[in-house]
Amino acid sequence: DIQMTQSPSSLSASVGDRVTITCRASQSVSSYLNWYQQTPGKAPKLLIYDASSLQSGVPSRFSGSGSGTDFALTISSLQPEDFATYYCQQTYSTPRTFGLGTKVEI
Amino acid sequence: QVQVVQSGAEVKKPGASVKVTCKTSGYTFTSHYMHWVRQAPGQGLEWMGIIHPRAGSTSHAQKFQDRLTMTRDTSTSTVYMELISLRSEDTAVYYCARGRGGNSLDAFDVWGQGTMVTVSS
After folding, report:
1. Could B95 and A91 be called an inter-chain contact, meaning their C-beta atoms sit closer than 8 Å?
2. Band of the pLDDT at B27, cuts 50, 70, 90?
C-alpha cells in the first residue's frame, strides 16, 4: 500500500494568513493526488484534484502543487470558513489511501 | 442537480451484517465509478472499495477481503455496500462517493451524507 504522510498534523492560524500543508507519498503517485476539506459532522469536500486542478465552485484562494511524491495545498488568505481538517488522497493505486489529516485551528 | 443520498443509521450486534444503500440522481449512473469510504469516530478516512456501475465489477481493500460486498441496481441508480461479521472496530460513518469522471483513478467529487453504523452488544 502507498502511505501518505501529511504535515503538520495540526496548525494554528489567523484569518488572512497564508497556510501550506504538505503531503508525501511513500512512492510515486504521478499527479493522482487530491485534497479534501472536512468540517465536523460533514462529508469531505473535494478541493483540488490531479494535484493542481481546482474543483468547480472552490474559491481560488485554494491551490495545489507537486508531482511524484511531494505535494502541497496552499490557502493564500485564510477565511473563517476554512477552519477544518484537510486530507490528501492518492488515487494512483489500490487501495486509494488518505493521509491522516491536518487540522487547521484558530 | 447531482445527489447522493444514503440510508439511515444502523445499530448492529457483533457478528451481524449491515447493508447500506446509496441512491443517486441527476447524472448518468453508469458513467461514474462509485467508492465506499469509512471514518471511525475521531479518526481519518479509510477507503474500502470501488464498483463500476455499468459492469458491476468491484475491487476492494485487502483488509475487507472476505467481508465486503458491493453491488448496484442500474434500474434505480443505487449502489449497496454490505459488510458481514461485524465487530466493534467497524463502528464508523460509512460514505459512498462518486468518481468525478469515467476513470477509476478520478477523485471523489460528490459524497453521500454518511451512514452511522454502530456495532455494540
Report:
1. no
2. very high
Residue A105, Cβ density class (10 Å: 0-12 exposed, 13-18 middle, ≥19 buried): exposed
Short-list B10, B14, B8, CA closest to B120: B14
User: Once rounded to an integer, what is the mean pLDDT over residues A6-32?
Assistant: 97
Identify which of A54, A98, A60, A55 has the alpha carbon closest to the alpha carbon of residue A76: A60
**What's the DSSP call for residue A69?**
T
B38 to chain A: closest CA residue: A43
Coil, helix or strand for A92? Answer: coil
Mutate to test the interface with A, among B36, B37, B45 (most CBs of A within 10 A): B45
Compare all CA atoms of chain A with the CA of B96 and give the residue at the minimum distance.
A43
Tens digits of residue pLDDT in B51-99: 999 999 999 999 998 899 999 999 999 999 999 999 999 999 999 999 9
In this complex, do B108 and A46 lie within 8 Å of one another by their Cβ atoms? yes
Cα separation, A88 vs A98, in Å, equals 6
Beta-carbon separation of A99 and B106 below 8 A: no
Asked if the Cβ–Cβ distance from A101 to B114 is below 8 Å, we say no
